[in-house]
Amino acid sequence: MEDVVYMGMKNEYSWFVEEVRKNQETMELISAVDKAIEEMPEDFEIKGFLQANRSEGKICALLNMTKPKQWDCSKRKGGKTI
User: Fold this and answer.
1) Is the pTM of this model over 0.70?
2) C-alpha distances in angstroms, 80 versus 40, 44, 60, 73?
């Protein structure tokens, strides 16, 4: 049963990362993350976690686990490092 839950959450996270990547084609990273969370299906297990931990630094840390080179979470808001 745990394997089924894990696979479901892995698929949800993959969906989230892909949505952020698509959104980044037309907007900045933080806006792309916010839009992906807002558009995430309500029945996704990870939605509540992402909403509760949506602060910039936490989401960047999550995304850095699968970070493509174009994602730069190290500088935000006036060039200040987070």
Assistant:
1) no
2) 30, 33, 14, 11
CB 16 within 8 A of CB 40: yes
> Residue 36 in contact with residue 19, Cβ under 8 Å?
yes
Tokens of 50: 């992402």
18-55 residue pLDDT tens: 998 899 899 988 888 889 999 999 999 999 988 887 77
Q: Where are the alpha helices (DSSP H) in the chain?
A: 2-23, 29-39, 46-52, 56-64
Residue 79 amino acid letter: G
